[in-house]
Amino acid sequence: MGSFFTKHATGLRYLSLAAMMIIPFFLYEAAINGQSGLLKVLLGLMGLAMLLTMKTG
Amino acid sequence: MIDLFLIKWLFAFSPIAVVLVLMIGFNWGGPKAGAAGWFTAVGASILFFGATPELLALAQTKGILLSINVLYIIWMALLLYHVVNETGAITAIGRGIERFSQDKAIQLLIFGWVFSSFLQGVAGYGVPIAVVAPLLAALGFNPVVAVAVPAIGHCWSVTFGSMGASFQAMMAVTGLGADYLAHWSAVFLGFSAFLCALASVHVYGGWRMIRHSAPAILIIGAVMAGTQYFLAVSGMWTLGGFGASLAGLAACLAVARMSLYRNQGNGPVGQDEGPMTFGWALAAYGILILTVSLGVLVAPVRDFLGQIKLSLQFPEIKTLTGWVVKAGYGQKIKVFGHGGALLGYASALSFLLYASKGFYKEGAVKTILAKTVNSGVPTSLGIVTMVCFALIMDQCGMTYLLAEGVSRLFGVTYPFFAPWIGLLGAFMTGSNTNSNVVFGVLQRQTAELAGLSAAVILAAQTTGGALGSMIAPAKIIVGCSTVGLSGREAPVLKATIKYGLIITGLIGLFTLAVAGLGLGR
Lengths: 57, 521
Description:
heterodimer, A: mainly alpha, 3 helices, B: mainly alpha, two-stranded antiparallel sheet, two-stranded antiparallel ribbon, 20 helices
């Protein structure tokens, strides 16, 4: 697992940045439209992107 | 009651504390520490400040809009730097400057103070130290001096450098405009320009060298501080650091011809330089000045480019503890009239000019893009994570609580500590921009609670943040790696920390005096 993150660190860094830039716009849509289930899923995804940054950043 | 306030204050401070501990104690980078700060902010906001999923979601969206506003400038500044550097222009500029004077003090000032500030103006993010340190070492300066001097010398231009990214960040998070903030920020940073120069020559030759260099520092410093002030208050703050250092380079030409500094070896600029002459090397920056001037000063052009704006409207939202965030628009981004867009136009035009003259090798486009992405992604990750957690703190009332605590603790002496908070932010995050993002709102709210001018306190914040660049370990490490001092950063850091603390102390006293006189309100 550790070697996977080391080997793909650059790509994963790009992925986490892209996720962090895109997810908030979906979060906005979900919050405005009162989709609380989707909101929690998307916040979870945002957390995953942050975790990925902690692992590869 | 007070104990409850203290406990809540400590939880409000916990995300910042986590970032500080991880970056200083465990040597984590900005992106990793920022992400850890984000988790801490989410946890504290839910458990102690009544954050709802809706509030967290909207805070993230506001955070990303703020991030895009800053990253637009950063990415385009990096693109322009690599477009220019790939032609060998930065080396040509360095070579041209070397001919100004053979006087060691003047060389030190030109490279370590003025040229490093110029590089900060056009690129930033460690480039000034990385480029200037080997040039000074090649001129025969001790490696420790070669790294310490640009590290100290360029700091004053950090806020308005990198096309004003740090200033942009401060405006974005505080919601205050350039009209209000530029005056005092330019005054404080102008004052620090002289202090950075004095410290730079003191590192090399102590008080004797200060006496020898004083006339040069006064003349060049007045030109740079004055130019920066003029550009900042006239709306062209994106060019503040760059324009000031360019004017400083011109002033260096005059100073180098003073009898005090004119000794053997002065040669004319622009001869025997190969295909990339000094003039061609500066051509891209001429294009930049023209583009930004057109986009900022010429009203029809500015209005035409500013037609398309990106923004989102946010509803009013309340935490479970009753903290209310008012409805309103998030950060507005002028897609084609933004400072980043103007930089993009300058990059494209410069590339076309240099390509038409055959200055690029085959595959240059790929190299430029790869280098831009490689340097832009880590910086962006650091900024996004920091901005996102700072916005969570702001939207839940955590920052306000921190400000209230700081105001109570320091009372009337608070202005003295304002630049220290900025310095701490830059030290912990390695960036004036991040420092302004993390502490900008805190400083504004503390100033307002204490009845002080927010413009003065924020000027002290960003000046402290700029000075923090000289003690940021990440930047020192980069500089040391270019002069063979890898793993031996301690002597450099020891030198820069001493000067960083002295200059910040002087800025603190200056802030106290300005605030005490009631100026800026």
